[in-house]
Amino acid sequence: MLRVAVVGSGPSGVYTAQSLVQRDPEVLVDVLDRLPCPYGLVRYGVAPDHEKIKSLQHSLRTVLEHERVRFLGGVRIGADGLSVARLRELYHAVVYCVGAASDRRLGVPGEELAGSWSATDFVSWYSAHPDAVAAGDGFVRDVRTAVVVGVGNVAVDVTRMLARGAAELSPTDMPQAALGALSASGVTEIQMVGRRGPSQARFTTKELRELGGLPDTEVIVDEAELASDPAYGDPSALPAAQRRNVEVLRGWAAAPTRGARRRIRLRFFLRPVELLPVEGRVGAVRLERTAPDGRGGVTGTGRYEDVEAQLVLRSVGYRGVPVEGLPFDADSGTVPHAAGRVLRGGEVAPGEYVAGWIKRGPTGVIGSNRPCAKETATSVLEDAPVLARRRLPDDPLDSLRAMGAEPVQWAGWLAIERAEAALGASLGRGVVKLPDWAALRAAAGSADGSRTAHASVDPSHPADRPS
User: Fold this and answer.
1) Which of 28, 254, 294, 455 has the largest count of CB atoms under 10 Å?
2) Which residue(s) pair with 262 in the sheet?
């Protein structure tokens, strides 16, 4: 019997657990997460108005309810929790699926001004992540114009959230405070800025088109900026996704303005070089015009413009952060590995593995995690005959509790779900997320059976043992 810990309950972690239990009937998997809630970025990163993508939780739920999978939330690994070395003692194998938790910075003067945030901060706030900054309505209070730096899907998401009204946001699971702040927002203009051209933008066409369907909002594109892209005039040689993006942008550039209440301006070949203060906070962004350098990049032209903005959101990528006790490549923001096997000093570290963004970097979409997880699971199962020889403590859960941890098991998560449904009903809405650690812990602790995992057909699995 092989006992595996998967650290992280987002798509990469759940897909790893799924691959393990589907392919070997002798594997038991504990999925650990520092949050009391499962699903990772599907719960806390997918925009609340993207119900179809958020419905992926249903398939992830099926895996976490598998008879040989156990969810243990509220378990911290690394500097402020259980050490990597101690965790390794409790399981035959440990797979780290911890994602890329940090954002990239612009590295320009003024970035620390009030009103300058990462898109990650903004997304965490409207997604009710318990670690979200306590900004209240400070993201959008007294904001008329906003600049979003970046032209990927996250940039499109935060732009869309800034342009949504109460009627569109109320049916979502957005926390009440964020709903109230965004509904009352006075934002009327959002500029989304990319340093390269439209053929190199990283948003998907589906996400891009959504901007054109927002009520009382128009999308404005300057054709002169598009035309600076060598591929704009004849996009036929572009890959299909980029070609469709260019076609959508061409359509908007050709359309007359309608005088809608809100405007989204898509800007290209501009890069921020400074955030300018007004009364101690962001008041404008200084942008430098760029030009293609003939090698796929851009170069500065020395021509500048200042764009008014009381809010600046940077969305220029994510970075992995080191887990204390694991090797880490600071240049790539990943853990060194070979087919998912962690490398220490260039040598395979027995029983240690990675999957997801901490393995390959922040690339791809949710579905990209499936083959990534499968590769790592294959490595685990190939190593299983040797790994399973090591004797383990009877139940890792007992060891965790002896160390002072009180993991939130599946019954605790179900209690959180019930509390969020009740909160929504009390507000005349659907499900509304609990916004902070205290509320989540209180809800999880209300479950009478929070110390009992869901049933397992295998009596040797810890889930079947009484506490």
Assistant:
1) 28
2) 217
- Other CB atoms closer than 10 Å to residue 89's CB: what's the count? 13
Query: Which tokens is 140 given?
Result: 């959008």
Amino acid at 179: L
Strand partners, 70: 30
pTM value is 0.90
Question: Side chain identity at 60, as an amino acid letter?
Answer: L
Radius of gyration of the chain, Cα coordinates, nearest whole angstrom: 24
Beta strands in 259-402 (DSSP E): 262-267, 270-278, 281-292, 298-308, 311-314, 318-319, 337-338, 341-344, 347-354
Residue 128, phi-psi category: left (phi > 0), alpha (psi -120 to 50), beta (remainder): left
For residues 409 and 451, the answer to whether their CB atoms sit within 8 Å is yes
Q: Are strands 69-72 and 27-32 parallel, antiparallel or unpaired?
A: parallel
Per-residue model confidence as pLDDT tens digits over 319-367: 888 999 999 999 999 999 999 999 999 999 999 999 999 999 988 889 9
CA angle 218, 220, 226 (to 5 degrees): 150
Q: Which two tokens stand for residue 272?
A: 């921020």
Distances (CA, A) of 260 to 182, 215, 455: 18, 9, 56
Maximum Cα–Cα distance for the chain, whole Å? 72
Nearest alpha carbon to residue 56 among 95, 20, 12: 12
Length of the chain: 467
Render pLDDT for 241-262 as a digit per residue (tens, 0 to 9). 999 999 999 999 999 998 999 9
State the Cα–Cα distance between residues 412 and 452, nearest whole angstrom. Answer: 9
DSSP structure class, residue 198: G
**Under 8 Å CB-to-CB from 329, ≥6 apart: which residues?**
335, 336
Given pLDDT bands bounded at 50, 70 and 90, which one contains residue 136? low
Decide: helix, strand or coil at residue 143: coil
287 and 302 Cβ atoms separated by less than 8 Å: no
What phi-psi label fits residue 375: left (phi over 0), alpha (psi between -120 and 50 degrees) or beta? alpha
Q: Taking a C-beta distance cutoff of 8 angstroms, is the pair 56, 449 a contact?
A: no
Amino acid at 10: G
Domains delineated in the chain: 2-101+320-409+451-464 (3.40.50.720), 105-317 (3.50.50.60)
Query: Residue 313's closest CA among 458, 140, 456, 462?
Result: 140
Residue pair 131/294 in contact by the 8 Å Cβ criterion: no
